[in-house]
Amino acid sequence: MASGCEQKVVLITGCSSGIGLRIAVLLARDEQKRYHVIATMRDLKKKDRLVEAAGDAYGKTLTLLPLDVCSDDSVRQCIDSVKDRHIDVLINNAGVGLLGPVESISMDEMKKVFETNFFGTVRMIKEVMPDMKKRRAGHIIVMSSVMGLQGVVFNDVYTASKFAIEGFCESMAVQLLKFNVKLSMIEPGPVHTEFETKMMQEVAKMEYPGADADTVRYFKDVYIPSSIDIFEALGQTPEDIAKCTKKVIE
Ligand code: NDP
């Protein structure tokens, strides 16, 4: 550890893949060992990629805990189990996407997106906030999206969930500042991860009952191919977003 420097405890949600995994690895492998990373994921059976990427940081500057942001019990147990360490930085990264004509999406699917992207983040903030306020220190980061600022066709519900969390955080940030607790939003554009790849591959094969033929044709023949082009031409990497996140907490 850098001499005279306290190690910051950073808890990150959704570290099984993509951006969360990359942030966890980048911080845990910091040359000056400024961070102790508590990398969380809802299914620890998925830990191998993270453990491999973390290398010798695993078990030293990176520890692993189970955490499902959709479960009150899981969130409480996770925060209780790190109570003696005080969380300096919370990175709310866990999220799910949802793409397609809205007529063909069930209410349960829509609720899952809000339960994860909105309530999952709120649940985490609510749990860590009291200790941060008491200590008058801390930084909460929320992984939003450009879709939290601008609506995008066929991403109606995902966009709405990110708008919702933007609104919540804008309000919270003002209250938290009075307690010297910072709240920052990161709003990535397209990022090449399995999040995007999985979703595009799945949606291209699916049927869209309930949606009219013209909408489905536009979605499959125009929207999906042009989105793939955009991801390929403009997409950032999870590593790019991890570097940006590290800058935000430095
Ligand atoms: P990934 O699908 O690669 O990662 C999402 C992570 O969230 C996974 O680890 C997943 O775990 C986890 N997760 C999902 N639901 C839960 C839950 N209930 N509890 C705990 N963890 C959960 O996608 P990305 O890395 O791209 O996404 C990370 C964040 O970045 C998301 O918030 C997303 O909205 C945002 N973002 C992504 C962009 C992109 O183009 N990819 C662009 C802008 C923002 P599991 O493996 O168990 O499913």
Q: Give the neighbour order of strands across the main sheet.
A: 3-2-1-4-5-6
CATH fold description: Rossmann fold
Question: Which molecules are bound in this entry?
Answer: NADPH dihydro-nicotinamide-adenine-dinucleotide phosphate
Shape summary: globular
Gap between N and C termini, in Å?
15 Å
Overview of this protein structure:
This protein is of the alpha/beta class. The chain has a single domain, classed as Rossmann fold (3-Layer(aba) Sandwich). It has a 6-stranded parallel sheet, with helices on both faces. Helix 5 links the parallel strand 5 and strand 6. The two termini are 15 Å apart. The mean pLDDT is 94. The structure holds NADPH dihydro-nicotinamide-adenine-dinucleotide phosphate (NDP). NADPH dihydro-nicotinamide-adenine-dinucleotide phosphate binds next to helix 1, helix 4 and helix 6. One of its GO terms (biological process) is estrogen biosynthetic process. One of its GO terms (molecular function) is estradiol 17-beta-dehydrogenase [NAD(P)+] activity. Belongs to the short-chain dehydrogenases/reductases (SDR) family.
Short summary of the structure?
The protein is of the alpha/beta class and 250 residues long.
